[in-house]
């Protein structure tokens, strides 16, 4: 989108890009229909390819199947690796939780300990001294 001024008026030009048409998908669909022997018409289409062309298509198809098989194997091994890593992390988290809960000091029924009472007593004494000096 481009905006510009022409003769005192603001003009806008929009450039739309047309989407690319994916041709390989259409070829694959036609190739699979030809292998089935039916093209969706009431009468069969004449075969314009010679036997070497169909062998080349079969070779390409077999190559694609092998590639998909290896890709599937790679994906499965990656998923297994991720699962193993998740199990390791889960075990580590459980070990850390057990370590943290075992190191907690036992809860005392005494809400305030002796150091708290001493601190409060010092604050009260300081308050008395401040009141006595500024009185």
From TrEMBL:
TM helices/strands, residue ranges: 116-134
Feature: compositional bias, Polar residues: 45-55
Entry keywords, A to Z: Coiled coil, Membrane, Transmembrane, Transmembrane helix
Source species, domain of life: Eukaryota
Coiled coil: 72-99
Annotated spans, Disordered: 1-60
Protein name: Oxysterol-binding protein-related protein 8-like
Organism: Alligator sinensis (Chinese alligator)
């Amino acid at each position: 989108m481009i905006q510009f001024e022409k003769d005192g008026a603001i003009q806008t030009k929009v450039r739309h890009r047309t989407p690319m048409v994916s041709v390989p998908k259409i070829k694959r669909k036609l190739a699979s229909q030809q292998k089935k022997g039916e093209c969706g018409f009431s009468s069969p289409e004449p075969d314009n390819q010679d036997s070497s062309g169909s062998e080349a298509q079969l070779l390409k198809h077999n190559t694609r199947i092998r590639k998909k098989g290896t890709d599937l194997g790679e994906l499965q091994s990656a998923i297994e690796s991720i699962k193993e890593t998740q199990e390791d992390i889960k075990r580590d988290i459980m070990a850390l939780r057990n370590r943290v809960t075992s190191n907690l000091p036992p809860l005392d029924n005494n809400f305030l300990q002796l150091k708290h009472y001493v601190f409060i007593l010092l604050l009260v004494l300081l308050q008395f001294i401040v009141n006595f000096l500024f009185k």
